[in-house]
Structure prediction request, 400 residues.
Amino acid sequence: MNWKLAARAAKMNPSVLREILKVTERPGIISLAGGLPSPKTFPIQAFADACAEVLHNDGQAALQYAASEGYAPLRQAVADMLPWNVDPAQVLITTGSQQGLDLVAKVLIDPGSKVLVETPTYLGALQAFGPMEPNPVSVASDEDGVIVDDLVAKARDARFVYLLPNFQNPTGRTMTEERRAAVSAAAAAANLPIVEDNPYGELWFDEAPPLPLAARNPDGVIYLGSFSKVLAPGLRLGFLVAPKAIYPKLLQAKQAVDLHTPIFTQRMVSAVMKDKFLDRHVPTIRALYKRQRDAMIAALTREMAGLDVKFNAPKGGMFLWARLPEGIDTVTLLPKAVERNVAFVPGAPFYAGQGDPRTLRLSFVTASVEEIDIAIAALAQTLREELALVGDKQLAAAQI
Ligand SMILES: Cc1ncc(COP(=O)(O)O)c(C=O)c1O
Prediction:
């Protein structure tokens, strides 16, 4: 059969991350690549209890079709959990926050629409937006997030700006209070909607991050949240909070995709969340991830000494961002690291425009402290060999 593909199918590419994850599934590899939460944090017993309870008390309803907006008690729980005044009618339960990105793309992007993104940004968002054929434009960014002057300069005719203020994927950076206030004011003045993606906000190590952008201007922000990082990603459960003006369109888009998010899962999570379960559970995740972040920073400081390697110290989340010395391309480095049984994600695919080939993302949450030590030592060894190779090539080129 000669399948004639839709033009949009040409815009769908295999996720670089998923391809890399395949390599990391090889036995013996220590993966600092994937964005997988630590399975040690999954509250299996709480789900076993909730599963039995839901089937016993509400079995028929839990296995029936349900409302597209989501399970009412869960929408209420989400509204109660958020740190600004949210009407549960504005909450749409989604099949992961990744679905929220897809719905936003369908409702707001035409072919050629300008969409502003951070430099770098979440690869999965670029992938979700891609089939709607936007023109993604990178806004210059620093350790505190997008730079306001550049945001203002590029805001004209943009459909929205996509922002990750907390422990960003991939860089781990956090937008300061001052920057949030300036971004929020600038976006409102430019009539620029914000799509705020916050799957990591609860995973802070020392202090909670500043208030979300949505709390500052609820009518100008679509806010995306997730249960993946505080409970388990296999649930595929997320939510969005949308202004009343746009909510019905997002709901219609969702109806067309999957009618509703699995109601069994929603009821189970609602049962798990009873009695403030997350207030007890999330601090255990924070403590574990903080220990692992500290271990990775200690290992990098020790193993990369003398090499021109820059890395940050994220205040939460799951990722650390590093920049290797001049002349190194992390895409070329990756297979050599894999030979030494360590995997990471090259940074370049996270850029909407020209990527920085020297960057890479390291996850500090999936591997144990002992594995982190071994993996960073192996990475440093791979880098030393690569630097020697690059040096030899430069020397040879100079002699020609
Ligand atoms: C920034 C960001 N947004 C959205 C998602 C999707 O998460 P979910 O599991 O809720 O679909 C991820 C997953 O890693 C992410 O890092």
User: Anything to note?
Assistant: The longest strand covers residues 158-163.
